[in-house]
Amino acid sequence: MWTIIDSPVGELRLVEHRGALTAIEFAPFAEADGRVRGDRDDRHPLLGEAARQLTAYFQRDLKEFDLPLAPVGSDFQQRVWRALQGIGYGETASYGQVATRLGMTPAASRAVGLANGRNPIPIVVPCHRVIGADGTLTGYAGGLPRKQLLLGLEQEGLF
């Protein structure tokens, strides 16, 4: 099941499967990418709760999400995505720092970056909080303007 909500970063498609959030997609939406979406259901309880929490996040009233998540990915990607959830609201970490938190050397930062870029549940799994070692904003599947907006929202309260 899925629904679409408006947000400061554009329309978001929220996708649920078997009682867990499996994706948050930025517009424009891909239709033929092989992901399971099912039918649109704007009244689904989990999707409604995800929409409520995202709205509260964008209003700066929520700093931690509490939703059942089921991102689909390899074991390594799953490890990276769990590590991302350890980066707190308003904080950032470099790809090398995430690698170190996973017990790897900073040289694994490229592998971390690739897994980060495949995160199917952005914002809730905060891949936008990962930056370059020199503090610069680096790639973001939703585009750098969205990443900058999300970081500004959290760090300065600015849009």
Task: Give me the secondary-structure topology.
Elements: E1 2-5, E2 12-17, E3 20-26, H1 45-58, H2 75-84, E4 93-94, H3 95-101, H4 109-117, E5 130-131, H5 144-155
Parallel strand pairs: 4-5
Antiparallel strand pairs: 1-2, 2-3
Helix pairs in contact: 3-4
CATH homologous superfamily heading of the largest domain? Winged helix-like DNA-binding domain superfamily/Winged helix DNA-binding domain
Strand content: 5-15%
Helix-residue proportion:
25-40%
Q: What gyration radius follows from the Cα positions, in whole Å?
A: 15 Å
How many domains? The number is: 2
- Our count of helices gives 5
CATH class of the largest domain: Mainly Alpha
Mean pLDDT: 93
Fill in the CATH topology of the largest domain: Arc Repressor Mutant, subunit A
Low-confidence stretches: none
Biggest sheet, spatial arrangement of strands: 1-2-3
* Sheet having the most strands: 3 strands, antiparallel
Distance between the termini: 30 Å
What is the name of the CATH architecture of the largest domain?
Orthogonal Bundle
